[in-house]
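Quick one, tokens below. Sequence please?
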């Protein structure tokens, strides 16, 4: 089982942008709070959750956010954006710092936490915290209507362009610019692929630098972690 931990009081060199202290804003530029701590896998050093200080608006004080809901803030380059509302945060399982110190307690809390955030999956526009709604598929009535209006049913000449899907080169470019091949995707497939690419939200460059710092200092971080030390022994 992956062990999760935090940096606690460990300091980061001045040449590395520390995520702790960063402002997190929600939809409509609403300020949600300030990053108080990062929770990451002590094996891969990948940040999984942010502990955010609500700065007073939440009764519990701090709350947890999954990093798959975090993206670069397009309006504030030094901040982070989250596609969540205060109401969602208020209804989420309350975070307790002590649960992270017990593997059993954390396992139970994380299970409840993931269940809450995964019940209603949210897709975001790529590079943005804007929520997008999956397009509705055509109904059986729509399909029958299309068949009735088809060239075969009306007796009019068939245009070759009507027999093929739309050319999707603006989104899916051919591997070789000089190639005569045309990359074709049915509309439904194109929508699915674009939506899937938007689920992985873009992070700021300084986020990547911070995670690289964690990886490079993995041995020191694990040495200062009581749980990592006990497992090594």
């Amino acid at each position: 089982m992956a062990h999760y931990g935090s940096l606690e009081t460990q300091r980061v060199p001045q040449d590395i942008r520390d995520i702790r202290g960063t402002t997190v804003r929600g939809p409509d530029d609403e300020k949600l709070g300030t990053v108080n701590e990062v929770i990451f896998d002590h094996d891969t050093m990948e940040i999984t959750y942010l502990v955010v200080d609500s700065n007073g608006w939440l009764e519990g004080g701090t709350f947890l956010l999954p990093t798959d809901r975090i993206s670069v803030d397009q309006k504030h380059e030094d901040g982070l954006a989250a596609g969540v509302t205060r109401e969602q945060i208020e209804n989420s399982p309350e975070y307790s710092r002590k649960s992270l110190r017990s593997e059993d307690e954390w396992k139970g809390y994380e299970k409840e936490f993931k269940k809450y955030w995964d019940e209603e999956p949210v897709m975001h526009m790529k590079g943005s915290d804007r929520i997008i709604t999956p397009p509705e598929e055509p109904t059986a009535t729509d399909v029958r209507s299309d068949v009735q209006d088809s060239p075969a049913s009306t007796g009019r000449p068939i245009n070759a362009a009507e027999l093929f899907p739309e050319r999707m080169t603006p989104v899916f470019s051919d591997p070789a610019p000089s190639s005569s091949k045309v990359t074709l995707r049915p509309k439904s497939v194109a929508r699915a692929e674009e939506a899937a690419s938007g689920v992985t939200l873009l992070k700021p460059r300084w986020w990547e630098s911070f995670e690289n710092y964690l990886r490079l200092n993995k041995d020191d971080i694990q040495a200062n972690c009581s749980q990592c030390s006990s497992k090594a022994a």
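The longest helix spans residues 103-118. The radius of gyration is 24 Å.
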